[in-house]
Amino acid sequence: MRLAQPLLLLLSVSSLMLGGCKSGSKLLYQPSPMALSTKLPEMEVRVENGPMDKTEGSLPEDPVQLFKRETKQNLVESNDSSARFGYLKLQILEAKASRHGKALHAIQMAGFLMPSLFGLPLEFFRTHVRAQLQVVDAKGEVLGTYEGTGDSNIKVAMYHGYSQSMGPRLADTEALKSALAKIKPQLDTASTLLRTRLLSTGQLGDEEQEVATGRPYEAAPAPAPVKPAEDDEE
After folding, report:
1. Residue 27 half-sphere exposure toward CB, CA atoms < 13 A
2. What angle separates helix 62-70 from helix 167-201, to the nearest 10 degrees?
3. Which among 147, 102, 144, 140 is positioned nearest to 121, based on CA atoms?
4. Which pLDDT does position 220 carry in this prediction?
5. What residue ranges of the chain have pLDDT lower than 50?
6. Based on the number of CB atoms within 10 Å of its own CB, is 214 exposed (0-12), middle (13-18) or buried (19 or more)?
7. Quick one: pLDDT at residue 51?
8. What is the pLDDT of residue 22?
9. Helix H or strand E encompassing 147
10. Whole-number Cα distances in Å, 19 to 23, 102, 148
């Protein structure tokens, strides 16, 4: 009977925590506010998730959805037509996720999760990301390559943090968002020249335009070399 009361209290506090955590769904695809001073013409998006597919945090579509919203809101001008003047290729080169807070777990269990009611976190999810952005014109020529790193630190707590289910996913997207925030100033410096070159090259053909899926971007294979004809023997 004495053991049942603490267990009941623990279950009660746990159920409160499930409903007391902050919602991170609105933050998942919300890009950082900085926009290019000279926006690029409308472009197709390509995303290669790479190691982020193995972090067990973000869903496969998360990097694509975040970058598509970033592109639409901050990188390219709106275009009512179907014209696209090349590609923005995002490649995630490095993604390392970690979980911290073993000492906090011990304190929470010893206090039957009551410290959570007073703001003490349960744990932290952290992700480090290194990403590369390439601007590719309609002919497949890479006009610029830009790289940035980002880190996140997501707190799991009652009322003052996020849930354990949302924590890893939000940590991944926040780290990628931070990396993109480092890339944008580099892109902004070159945006005027990039815009001129993209427009002068022209737009993609209809057969080349498709929606990004997070799969690796594959350039068209180079044509096979033509062998010279051998002279006929007399």
Report:
1. 20
2. 50
3. 102
4. 44
5. 1-20, 112, 207, 211, 217, 219-222, 230-234
6. buried
7. 95
8. 55
9. strand 142-156
10. 10, 23, 36
Q: What pLDDT shows up at residue 197?
A: 97
- Produce one character per residue of 69-106: b if its CB has 16 or more CB atoms within 10 Å, e if not: ebbeebbbeeeeeeebbbbbbbbbeebebeeebeebee
The 8 Å CB, 24+ separation contacts for 215-224 are 215/48, 216/48, 217/46, 217/48, 217/87, 217/89, 217/91, 219/140, 220/140
Q: Is 216 helix (H, G, I), strand (E, B) or coil?
A: coil
| 119 neighbors 135 (Cβ within 8 angstroms) | no
Long-range contacts of 138-142 (CB under 8 A, 24+ apart): 138/84, 138/85, 138/86, 138/198, 138/201, 138/202, 138/203, 138/204, 138/208, 139/201, 140/219, 140/220, 141/201
| Dihedral angle over CA of 95, 101, 102, 106, nearest 10 | -160
Letter for the amino acid at 59? L
Check if the beta carbon of residue 183 is closer than 8 Å to that of residue 67. no
Contact at 8 Å (CB) between 115 and 108? Answer: yes
What pLDDT, on a 0 to 100 scale, did the predictor assign at position 79?
81
Model confidence, pTM: 0.74
- First and final C-alpha spacing in the chain: 107
Is residue 122 within 8 Å of 164, Cβ to Cβ?
Answer: yes
